Q: What sequence folds into this?
């Protein structure tokens, strides 16, 4: 007889702490200095289609408060070997618009430059996907990328995201208009949903 699968909570806990030393966790007060540095990195924020605005620690706290965890959003610090190296955020789309669904989530990732190109971004994305699918029943992930950011585009394609639209001159960063690629990834049903569907069919 094959061993049974671990409970969902245990399985997810194991998934969030893989052998390579990467973990996703809620932010802590000790992260504020690190997050402030990322928020004020002009080149990094430009890659994220945003502008560094000389944030102070109080601004970072207010920004984090707006992203307080709820049924419609979450924020995770990316931790590697015990130290923060970036962050991920996700927001459930509100269901407005012809293409929106209640299970559609928009993602954003920021990784400190010193830790880019080491496979951490892709691993962190996988962990976030597992959490969104298992706990929040996400079925479709979406994100926007600067069309000139070849490294980010390659990362997302490797992890199953597909280009669904291009928006010309979508946002202005540093006085320059940026073209944006919209990418999406469909997720399969969670094990709980599969079991529920099978039960409903049987009855």
A:
């Amino acid at each position: 007889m094959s061993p049974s699968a671990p409970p969902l909570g245990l399985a997810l806990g194991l998934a969030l702490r893989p052998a390579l030393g990467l973990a996703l966790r809620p932010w802590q007060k000790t992260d504020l200095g690190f997050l402030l540095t990322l928020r004020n990195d002009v080149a990094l924020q430009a890659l994220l289609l945003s502008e560094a605005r000389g944030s102070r620690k109080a601004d970072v706290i207010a920004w984090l408060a707006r992203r307080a965890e709820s049924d419609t959003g979450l924020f995770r610090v990316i931790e590697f070997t015990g130290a923060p190296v970036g962050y991920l955020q996700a927001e459930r789309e509100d269901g407005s618009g012809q293409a929106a669904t209640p299970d559609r989530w928009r993602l954003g990732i920021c990784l400190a430059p010193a830790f880019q190109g080491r496979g951490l971004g892709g691993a962190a994305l996988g962990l976030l996907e597992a959490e969104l699918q298992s706990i929040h029943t996400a079925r479709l992930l979406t994100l926007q990328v600067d069309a000139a950011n070849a490294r980010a585009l390659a990362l997302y394609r490797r992890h199953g995201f597909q280009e669904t639209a291009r928006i010309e001159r979508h946002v202005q960063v540093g006085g320059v208009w940026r073209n944006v690629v919209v990418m999406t990834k469909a997720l399969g049903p969670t094990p709980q949903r599969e079991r529920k569907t099978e039960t409903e069919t049987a009855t």
Remarks:
- The chain has a mean pLDDT of 81.
- The longest helix spans residues 120-136.
